[in-house]
């Protein structure tokens, strides 16, 4: 279920279909012109490699057990490449956790409290989805097509927020090489962040009712994830 959402800027009229149409809850666009000074990006560890006290952060890898057969995990399971042919499904371990119909993979670390931030570098992809999902969502559905996943989708050179069979256009973002995601569990918010301009772009409001994990859908190119980051000061 979704909370009502307040728009801070007016979205462009209409919406462009992105794969199966499902998904939308309330969401809000934020101006890319954030006037606050950019904060230096930090990892969640201090100079001596110890977590800094009182900070929320998520450190995860992609869970191979959930990856569709068209997706190859790379860089020690922190990135994913889409293969047009893919792996023969009969040659990969079959289990109930694997997505069977859609090119989706989930992160391996669930979140059930706190504020958490991670980033995604996009390479040579014209169609992908990034966000979060219930850890036990159906493996027969794509992320963004139900009320158990919350995603930002890029397709046909346009961005949309997706949830519950609806899409909401996101304007004034372009195609940044790296974007961030901020998940605030208690507040029920997932935000898309321009990691290069240090500005919040758009927020989806939702009620998280159980553990959620980072979620990724990819239909060409590759995505690299960057976790273990503290929430930037400007957020």
Written account of the structure:
A hairpin with a 2-residue loop joins strand 8 (about 160-165) and strand 9 (about 165-170). Helix content is about 0%, strand content about 35%. The protein has one domain (about 55-230): SPRY domain (Jelly Rolls), CATH 2.60.120. It has strands at about 25-30, 70-75, 80, 105, 115-125, 125-135, 150-155, 160-165, 165-170, 180-185, 190-195, 200-205, 210-220, 220-230. Strands 1-12-11-10-5-14-3-2 form an eight-stranded antiparallel sheet, with no helix packed on it.
Main sheet strand line-up:
1-12-11-10-5-14-3-2
CATH level 1 name: Mainly Beta
Quaternary state of the chains: single chain
Largest sheet: 8 strands, antiparallel
**How do the SSEs run, as a string of H and E?**
EEEEEEEEEEEEEE
Mean pLDDT, nearest integer? 80
Q: Rough shape?
A: globular
Q: What is the total tally of β strands?
A: 14
Number of H/I helices: 0
Radius of gyration, Cα only, in angstroms? 17 Å
Which structural class do the helices and strands define?
Answer: mainly beta
User: What name does the CATH topology carry?
Assistant: Jelly Rolls
User: Distance N terminus to C terminus?
Assistant: 25 Å
**Low-confidence runs:** 1-25, 31-54
Tally of individual domains: 1
Beta strand %: 35-45%
CATH architecture: Sandwich
Instruction: Assign the CATH superfamily.
Output: SPRY domain
Query: Helicity range of the residues?
Result: under 10%
